[in-house]
Amino acid sequence: MKRKLTLMLLGLVMTVSANAQFENGKKYIGSSISGLNMSYNGSEKSHFGLQAKGGYLFMDDWMVTAQMAYDKKKDVSAELSLGVGARYYIVQNGLFLGASADYVHRGSDYDDFMPSVQIGYAFFISHTVTIEPEIYYNHSFKSHSDYSSVGFRLGFGVYL
């Protein structure tokens, strides 16, 4: 009984402490890594990606984001992308849904527009710093079977 009460109290404290982080006017800075054979699409064997993201909570639970990324894939040119998106915190404990649209450029032979959806969790390790695991799906309009991908991304974020 004591254990259940302690777990419920801990859950309540985490929910209340996270609530203050997703309020109007907060700023967000984050970075993440992807790849490391944690994604799949039809044209690649392995890849490694780095992403930088900034955001602003324009109303409670809603964030607008801007991001840039670098992906290095085996046997093909490196990929650079720029994008904008939005994130919605479903519940006040850090669970979020995201959507973005990215312009992707690879070498001189490949440009694509790739919408993406994400689901993740902002786990607070301090009052402002988070670890953010995320599952994503990127959809390619140029070649769905070769460049659309599903993967896992692990990030760190700071809410100011």
From TrEMBL:
Cited InterPro entries: OMP/PagP_B-barrel
Keywords: Signal
Protein name: Outer membrane beta-barrel protein
Superkingdom in the source lineage: Bacteria
Listed SUPFAM superfamilies: OMPA-like (SSF56925)
Signal peptide location: 1-20
Keyword Signal belongs to the record: yes
